[in-house]
Structures are given as structure tokens and as C-alpha cells.
Amino acid sequence: MPPRNRVAATAPNAAPKKATKTKGAPAKTQRSSATSNAAPTSNGRGAVKETTHDESDDGEEDESAEQDESVEQEQNHDDPETKRRKYHEEANGGRRLDRRATPAAAAGSSTRSAPRGRRAAGKVAAAALVDESNHAGESDRRRGPRSPKVATRPSKRKRDVEDEDKAEEEDEEPEQVPKPKKPRAAPAAPKKAKAKAKEPKPAPVPKPAVSGTSSATKSRPERAAPRMRGPGAKGVPFNEVPSKELDVFVFGEGSSGELGLGSKKYDGKKPIDVKRPRLNHNLKGVVALACGGMHCIALTHDQKILTWGVNDDKALGRNTFWEGGTRDVNDEESDDEDDDDTGINPNESTPGEVDISILPEGTKIAQVAASDSASFILTDDGWVYGWGTFRGADGIIGFSEHVRIQETPALIPGLKNITKLVCGANHVLALDLSGKVFTWGSGGQLQLGRKPVSRLLGPSAGLHPQPCGKFTKKHHAINVGAGSYHSFYVDNDDQVWAWGLNNYAQTGLRERTGEDEAMILHPELVQSLQDHKVTQIVGGEHHSVACTTEGKLLTWGRVDGHQVGQPSDIYDDSNAIFDDNKKPRILLQPTVIDGIKASFVATGTDTSFVINHEGKVYSWGFSANYQTGQGSTDDVLEPTLIDNTAIRDRKIVWAGAGGQYSVVAAGKDDEVPNGH
Predict the structure, then answer these.
(1) How many angstroms separate the CA atoms of 516 and 373, rounded?
(2) Cβ pair 650, 666 in contact under 8 A
(3) Predicted confidence band at 234 (pLDDT cuts at 50, 70, 90)?
(4) How many CB atoms lie within 10 A of CB 246?
(5) What is the DSSP letter of 65?
(6) What pLDDT is attached to residue 638?
């Protein structure tokens, strides 16, 4: 499960300090916010300066070349102008060539950049020179044999000035010809557009995939567009769609809107610091829920997706912009006692609908899931969609290879025929029909179960779903589970495999337990669970909980915050590690808690829940923000019944928790029989 806050997520290996109760809404600066990677733009001024410099140098070389050419023409005793004109007409199809424009054009510029006024003045001067040269030529021819040396050179230069201007005018149209030809070199684009048009549900997914990227990277998402958009039509359903409506009860801090109670008082009660379970009046017709670190996602009976809570990393999948300000929601010295507005963002704290029009027509949602900063939905035909982002020790990793933060639902590529999703703080596990387990997200604590990739690829290499092992017909997975930074799967022989962070033995393995950097690279068999047929397995930040087909409740991992809920007399040197004060610090192996027949288990960061076969819910662990529902901020040492008027006569069927809040749900018409 996700950590208590975004800051905790960046340092999973460090021993967390106990949180202290803080009144009032946390300042916005304490919540993580997405940063923008705007690509710098270029004005191209440097290129213009270089072109101008090259053009000037080339002009001097041409002038020298023309002088040499004139001398050569005189030595050959030919008519120089006739020879030059014929040469250019043969080589250029009757068109004079301006050699000085060629280097400038190759550098991305043109000599035509001179102002028209300057060009016109040059033409007038050229005409005057031509007229003068005609008179000079007649005078020189009368003087005898030496006249060609004097008359030909200035005449040629003056004609070149005129030829240069004429060449500029004649070259204006040819230089513009290549520009419209460039797009013709990419005929594939319209073909892809036609292929997309054939699909019944045009999806806007590829657009966010290239937003904020350079033109060089835009082609990649475009090539992957058909895959990103998923099936063209609804497939054969195989996942069961929930239909039983639930009443949702919430408790915990709520100052970031994670309780979904809105921003104002309701029935005289503030939507924050809810000490015991309270019915959420904003949630009607809910059939499935999931809790992230500081946000929630729910599915309704009419196939709507609702989200609420923190939206800093777009985990809500919708726009929650609010122009209002914030204030201390518990300010006892406030003069405005009649004001029932807490100052919480109403768009975040009130459940709102997510646009899921990307799904093919007729598709139904079978499951919802949430990590610390992302949300996911699983369809009845096995496709997975998500939004938000993943975080690592250094901040945001990204949602996919090309997308830093996905603001709206997008198909997760590389997945199909998925039957179940579970989330850790910043990673996801998906189980498919064949029994393969796919993982993706942050892998900094080896929670993806893959061999570490090259550092050159960076943490984003884990954002594409990949199998975490070799699965066959003889050995495949039938269930999956996740803690904040560790993972599990149960195989077809009912054996549990674990990997990821193991500094508090949260995997159930003793390997390197007690070391800050203790991690399990690949899935390993948890031998201490071989005698148990596990039906559900979940994890918090440093502890884990499981229940079996026989209703046994097992816990293991970190002890000093009472996360495992074991009585103090069960610890000894054979099953625990003690601190310097001889207090138990780590429970090394899964251990049964007697007295409760479990049917469902759930965990928050350092809090745990179990529902028994009679629909009663128990909690234990860290409770600084009332997240145990016991009405106190003191740690709850052992599993304790949550009992208040709101849920006393209700049959609880589901529980979930984040960092500072928790949720339980009961069937809409289900009641616990009298006497239980």
C-alpha cells in the first residue's frame, strides 16, 4: 500500500518516524506537484549570421575567379561574352546561373534576403554602368590591338552585375519549388489516419503521449497509436462485473479530500478528522472501490468511474482546478463561526466522474485499482487503462516511456487478457488468463521482479509491462498481491513467491533482513507459508498480512508500530529481531493470530484490517490520524473490533486504506443478524 505521504515514498528504506498529529489542512507546498519539462525553443538567429558571413566570403572568391576567367578569355582571342552566354545556356537550359547564391542557399539562406529597395537601386546603377561601358567599348576598339584588355574587363563586370540581378529574379521561383515537395516524402501519415478512422471509438490517447516532446520523438507515439487505442471493438468478456451496490464508510484525516466528503460541513459535521466510520453521502450506487496513497477510485452500478482526493499528479484523471484559497480548517480563533466551508478544494474532495469514452462501445469495467499517484481500470474483456504517474526516489519517473504525467485514461500497451490488478506505492502487478504475472512502474527496490536494466536507460525502463518470471502450464500464477515496495504471487500449487524490499522481512523471507538495502531480485519461494493455502495476501510499507482457505490470519514484518498486531509474548530469538532496548523490531516469519476467522484482509501504510466471516471488521497498527477507526490517535496493539452506530448492524464486505485514511463498505441491504 502507498506511504502515508508523498515524502515518505521517496525514501522507502529508511526507518520511518512516527507521525505526530497535525491539526488543519496541510499546506499545498507539502503536497507533490508535477513539474513541467518545457522543451527550449530556437530563434535561429545564429544560423542567419553564419549564412551572411559565408555569403560575403564567397563573393570575394567569385570576384577573383571572374578576373581570372576574363584574362583566360582574352588569351584565347574569343568573344568572351558570346562564349560565356553559350556556356550558361547549355549547362542550365538557357537560364543564367548566379554562382554566389549557391553556398548561401545550401546553408539555409538566400541572397534574395536583401531588401527590395536596395535591389532596385542596384538595378538602376547596373543600367548606368552598362550604358557607360557601351561607349567605352566603342572608344577602345578605335585605339587598336590593346583595346580588348581595357574594354572587356569592365564590360564583363558590369554585365555580371546585371546578370546577377536577373538571375535573382529568375531563381526566385525555382528555389521555392522544393519546399512543397518535402511533405510528399511522407505518404505513410494519411494511411495511418485511414486505419484509425476504421476503428469505432477514436481515442485521444496518442495526443498526450507526444505533448511536451520534441519533433524527433513525436513519431514514436504515432507509430504506436493503434496499439495505444486498444481493441477496435469490444472483445469476449471473461471478467466478472460487480453489481452489488455498497454503502461506503470513511474515517481518518481527510484534509486533502481523500475521504470524499466534500469541502463543507454536512449534518453539522466537518469533512475532516473523522474519528470513526461515517457514511459518505456523496457516494451512491458504488459497486467497487480502491484506495491509493491519498486518493480513491470507485466504480458505480451504471459503469461510471468516480475519483476524489489529491490530484497533484493527475491521479484523479479529471480537471480539479479551483480558484479558491486555503485556510486552517481547525482555526479555533476564527471569527466566522457560521461559515461551514473548510477551505478544501471542492473539486478534489467531492467525488467526480472521469471521462472513459476511450473505451470501445459496450465495454464494461470489472475492477479498479490505485497506487500512490496513479489509477487503473480493468475491463471485462481483459484490457487495462490508467492515468497519473509513477514516482521514484528522485521524484517523478513518468507514466510511460513518452508520457511524464497522463492526465486522462489511456490504454496500457503490452497487456491483454488480464484477470486481476494490484498496486503497490508506485508499481503494478497484472495477472493474465495464462497465469503470467506482468509488472511495471518504479523498480528502485526490485519490486518489479526483473533483472536491473542498464543505468543508461534510467528508471523509465520499468514503465513498460513485462513478465516477472518464467511461467508455464506446469508452473503459473493464480493470484497476486503487493505491498508498498514488495510483491507476491501464488502459484497453481498454492505456494507463495515473493520479491522486492525486504529490510523488515516483509516478503516472508529472512534473506538479509535488518539491512537497509535488503532486497530480493527475483521471485523466491516463501517456505514459511508452504503449509498454508493462501487465498489473499497484501502488504503495507514494511509488513504483510494474509488469510487462508481455513480462515487463518497471518502477519509478519515490522513490529515497532504494532503493524503486525501480535501479542507481545509470542516473540523470541527464533522468530524475531530485537532492538537495543530488547524490544521486538521485526517478526521474521508469517505467524497466525488466534481468535479471528478471516475472510478478507487489507492494509494501509502501517495499519491493517481483517473482516471475519460474520461481516465484522477489526483494525490495528498506527493511528495518529484516526485511520484505525477506533476514535483515538494511539497505536492499536492488537486486532480490535471497530464498533460504532454507523456500522454496528452492517455486514462489512470490503476494506481499504491509504496513508492517513481508511474506508470500509457494506452491502446496501446487508445487516448483521441479531446476536452477532
Answers:
(1) 25
(2) yes
(3) confident
(4) 24
(5) H
(6) 98
Question: Between residues 528 and 453, which one has the greater pLDDT?
Answer: 528
Q: What is the DSSP string of 648-663?
A: TTEEEEEEEE-SSEEE
Same domain, 280 and 390: yes
Q: Are strands 374-379 and 384-388 parallel, antiparallel or unpaired?
A: antiparallel
Domain residue limits at 171 = 58-68+118-181
User: CB–CB of 461/38 below 8 Å?
Assistant: no
CA 351 from centroid of its chain's CA atoms:
22
Residues 559-562: contacts with CB within 8 Å, 24+ apart?
A: 559/584, 559/585, 559/586, 559/587, 560/584, 560/585, 561/18, 561/606, 561/621, 561/622, 561/635, 562/620, 562/621, 562/622, 562/635, 562/636, 562/637, 562/638
Q: Is residue 620 domain-resident?
A: no
Q: At residue 587, what are phi and psi to the nearest 5 degrees?
A: -95, 115
Confidence band, pLDDT 50/70/90 cuts, at residue 131:
very low
Give the C-alpha separation, 106 to 102, whole Å. Answer: 6
Q: How far apart are CA 387 and CA 409, in angstroms?
A: 5
CA distances from 96 to 88, 112, 164 (A): 6, 16, 9
Contact 510, 520 (CB under 8 A): no
pTM: 0.68
DSSP letters spanning 440-457: EE--TTSTT-SPPPPTTT
Lowest mean pLDDT among 158-167, 391-400, 615-624, 637-646: 158-167
Q: Do 226 and 259 reside in the same domain of the chain?
A: yes
- Provide the domain count of the chain: 2
Strands (E), 483-604: 486-491, 496-501, 519-525, 534-539, 543-548, 553-558, 576-578, 584-593, 598-603
Whether the per-residue pLDDT at 19 is higher than 80: the answer is no
Instruction: Please identify, among 181, 212, 227, the residue that sits at the C-terminal boundary of a domain.
Output: 181
Is 535 within the bounds of a domain? no
Cell for 665? 463498505
Spell out the residues 6+ positions from residue 657 whose beta carbon is closer than 8 angstroms to its own.
1, 291, 602, 603, 604, 605, 607, 609, 627, 663
Work out the percent of the chain whose per-residue pLDDT is above 90.
Answer: 58
Alpha carbons within 13 A on the beta-carbon side of 635: 16
By the 10 Å C-beta count (0-12 exposed, 13-18 middle, 19+ buried), 59 is classed as middle
CA dihedral in degrees (583, 587, 588, 589; nearest 10)? 150
307 closest CA partner among 320, 321, 326? 320
Mean of pLDDT values over 168-190: 45
The Cα–Cα gap between 360 and 112 comes to 55
Q: Residue 512: its pLDDT value, please?
A: 83
User: Which of 554, 534, 531, 532 is closest to 544 using CA atoms?
Assistant: 554
